[in-house]
Specification:
Blueprint: H1 9-48, H2 54-90, H3 93-99, H4 104-142, E1 155-162, E2 165-173, E3 180-189, E4 195-206, E5 211-220, E6 225-234, H5 240-246, H6 255-267, H7 273-295, H8 309-335, H9 341-364
Helix pairs in contact: 1-2, 1-4, 2-4, 2-7, 2-8, 4-7, 6-7, 7-8, 7-9, 8-9
Length: 365
């Protein structure tokens, strides 16, 4: 029995079903509460747009819920792990399983199998649903929750550079020479990087060369005066091809599409550390659900009547949340070039995999 990872089919199905039900329940509770809080803070902005009503609120919910599910699914697995294992411990079921000859790893095996299935489902869900809804929601928010331009190339919060100068846009739609921007701001800087002037405009279109800002307002930093301009052409060195390259949003592209964008960046000699770290994290992120039963395993063992069960649950929760903190920190370091992209995405996963195994072996095996 010691060499059989799943010694009992009945026990495996019992533990897997119990764990899966608690994952779904915790995820539903988290998403429901967070969606209500999010809607309370955002509904005013949605309803402020002309013509918006209850239907647009439901549209926002359908676009926001997939993001919340993707973000908080690993947290749900962690909480479900602690609840399931504490319940098993309190009911002396863990003692019965160990008395029957099962090792700690065999007790956790059905939970790890369920968590692996959750990780696979999470990856597919992120790639097929979350990327699409994120792109639509960002474009809608950039358009102040007004009608979204009917264009598949809509992007939000675009940041572009032309030498020392910077061009930003709240949203960008179209491709090639038909690109149009909304909520445009142009920052002209000196050779030393000091801001010389700032120009704001409602829209911008390609002027071949440069980009024509319509209804522009110029603010001179040195003179501190504001000037109204009917139109102004800026960023003459910025081409539509460069915009296609610079306006990549990793959150709105799936695994394959982002890989192609990274290849295009590298071909153009551009820095890709941030995009490559995010690309690797599209794999390591969903796998975090697989770690949660291992990190929460400390709550399963030890005598419930010893008075340490609550402490064990707190330690399990601390281990799980420490993983998420370090994972986010490593990803941020990778974005800034502090860590290599692969290390930034995978180091927290393997680190806590070893920590979880060490704790389990030292305490129970």
């Amino acid at each position: 029995m010691q060499f059989d990872f799943f010694p009992s089919r009945t026990l495996t199905l019992y533990l897997a079903k119990m764990f899966a039900v608690r994952i779904v329940a915790m995820l539903a509770i988290l998403v429901l509460v967070l969606m209500m809080l999010d809607l309370l803070s955002t509904s005013g902005e949605i309803l402020a747009a002309p013509g918006n009503g209850q239907g647009e609120l439901w549209t926002y919910v359908t676009l926001r819920v997939p993001q919340l599910v993707a973000r908080f699914l690993p947290y749900s697995v962690l909480l479900a792990t602690i609840i399931a294992l504490v319940t098993l411990n309190q009911n002396s079921e863990v003692i019965a399983m160990k008395a029957a000859g099962l090792s700690a790893h065999q007790v956790l095996a059905p939970l790890l199998l369920t968590a692996a299935a959750v990780s696979a489902i999470s990856f597919v869900f992120n790639e097929t649903v979350v990327t699409r809804t994120t792109a639509t929601l960002k474009a809608w928010e950039a358009n102040d929750f007004g009608p979204i331009p009917q264009d598949s190339g809509v992007r939000a919060n675009v940041y572009l550079t032309d030498g020392n100068d910077i061009l930003t846009a709240a949203s960008l739609a179209g491709r090639g020479e038909d690109i149009t921007m909304r909520g445009v701001t142009w920052y002209r800087r000196s050779d030393g990087g000091m801001l010389v002037e700032q120009v704001r405009a409602d829209t911008a279109a390609y002027a071949n060369p440069g980009w024509r800002l319509e209804n522009a307002t110029r603010f001179g930093v040195a003179s501190a005066d504001t000037t109204r301009l009917p139109d102004l052409v800026v960023a003459e060195g910025l081409t539509p091809e460069q915009i296609e390259l610079e306006s990549v949003d990793a959150d709105t592209q799936d695994f394959v599409e982002l890989f192609r964008s990274i290849a295009a960046y590298e071909e153009a000699g551009r820095r890709t550390d941030e995009l490559r770290a995010t690309w690797w994290h599209k794999l390591s992120g969903p796998l975090s659900a697989f770690l949660m039963p291992l990190l929460g395993a400390i709550a399963a063992f030890g005598l419930a009547r010893s008075g340490q069960l609550f402490l064990r649950a707190i330690i399990a929760m601390a281990l799980g949340f420490a993983y998420f903190v370090i994972d986010n920190a490593a990803l941020a370091m990778g974005s800034f070039g502090g860590y290599p992209p692969f290390l930034a995405a995978w180091a927290p996963f393997f680190l806590f995999l070893l920590i979880g195994e060490t704790v389990l072996i030292r305490t129970e095996e």
